[in-house]
Specification:
Helix content is 39%, strand content 13%.
Length: 355
């Protein structure tokens, strides 16, 4: 940058908002880290802050870049969604608390931060949130997530589901064009439950007594269009009524539903007046119609079940959260700890597309 450009850049600093300053500091810190790494010097993240505790069992201080990164995430969410209480977009800064800036709405006169009204509200140790987000991206076990964040495994479990509350609800409002839909079945699990079982307990894993729609199999519906937008639902029963409740808002007669001919899906399409094409054999489109297949949704089923295997069984009551977790991982080509934290705060990938 020549001296004239640098002088103009400095002159504009006074017009930056608090959130913009946080973003600028974070980007400058990241650039400095990359520069130090390329020169073989320790990065700012590797050097402890002045006064940081390094003894065993002592709490470490969070590097400035991480605190600024969390503030930038909060600023981004508030700028896009407005007041957490009334939705108004006129607000003023109202200080800062525990790593997140606070605001006061000019319309309702109430104060809030980016976590207000979400499952993340009053969640402590905000300096570990980006570490937890990275653990979610890597889909590591609870033990590894707890070690990474420096918390107890039971805390890591609670954090996991607090971080998944918003992504579990982040689904595309509508599906476009050709939509492939099919059910898959996941073995019912009472993992973590100590009493009140409706059957004899079994060792980890197990097999269903029968394949398909039987009492010990939980139906999971997945619908996916050709752009990759995906919606899913845990069905109480594999019936047309349950499928209608899951898909009626996302599909319309403008879509073309492609399925394997299951009665519930066909009944849903008939009642909703949605054109439907039945594929007689998955992987074998009709002659002259290469687009009529359900290969995409079947491949998604395979990836979902392979990914779930690492958790050695998922409690059925938590299954919607894990579906949202997988859906969030596939919704974006590049996921960062900041974008995952933003989704946990209630501004996920599909919601961003509708604003």
């Amino acid at each position: 940058m020549d001296p004239g450009e640098f002088a103009g850049w400095l002159a504009g600093i006074g017009r930056l908002s608090g959130g913009q300053i946080a973003v600028a500091l974070a980007e400058l810190g990241e650039f400095a880290r990359r520069s130090d790494d390329s020169c073989g010097r320790p990065s700012p993240e590797a050097r402890p802050e002045t006064g940081a505790s390094t003894g065993k069992g002592e709490r470490r201080k969070t590097p400035r870049i991480e605190r600024d990164g969390l503030a930038a995430v909060g600023e981004r969410k508030v700028e896009r969604l407005g007041c957490a209480h009334c939705g108004a977009d006129e607000m003023i800064g109202w200080g800062r608390s525990h790593g997140l800036p606070r605001y006061r709405c000019k319309a309702c006169k109430r104060t809030f931060n980016a976590a207000t009204g979400t499952a993340m509200a009053r969640l402590r140790k905000k300096d570990r949130w980006l570490d937890q987000a990275q653990a979610m991206i890597e889909s590591v076990s609870l033990a590894k997530a707890a070690e990474r964040c420096g918390v107890h495994p039971t805390t890591a479990y609670r954090w996991r589901h607090r971080f998944l509350s918003a992504p579990a609800l982040d689904k595309p409002q509508t599906l476009q064009g050709i939509v492939e839909a099919d059910e898959t079945f996941i073995l019912e699990s009472f993992k973590g439950r100590r009493s009140g079982l409706t059957r004899q307990p079994r060792k980890r894993g197990g097999k269903a007594r029968h394949a398909g729609a039987f009492s010990d199999n939980i139906p999971v519906l997945v619908a996916r269009d050709r752009s990759g937008a995906t919606t899913d639902a845990v069905l109480p029963e594999d019936t047309a009524a349950c499928i209608t409740q899951a898909l009626s808002s996302a599909m319309s007669p403008a879509n073309l539903l492609v399925c394997d001919g299951g009665r519930p899906l066909c009944a849903f399409a008939r009642r909703a007046k949605i054109p439907v094409r039945v594929v007689p054999a998955p992987g074998k489109p009709p002659p002259g119609e290469p687009d009529i297949h359900i290969n995409n949704v079947n491949a998604y089923h395979s990836r979902l079940k392979e990914w779930l295997r690492r958790f050695h069984g998922v409690a059925t009551r938590n299954l919607p959260n894990y579906l949202g977790w997988r859906r969030a991982l596939e919704a974006s080509a590049e996921i960062t700890p900041r974008s995952w934290t933003l989704a946990a705060l209630g501004h996920g990938a599909y919601q961003q597309l509708t604003l």
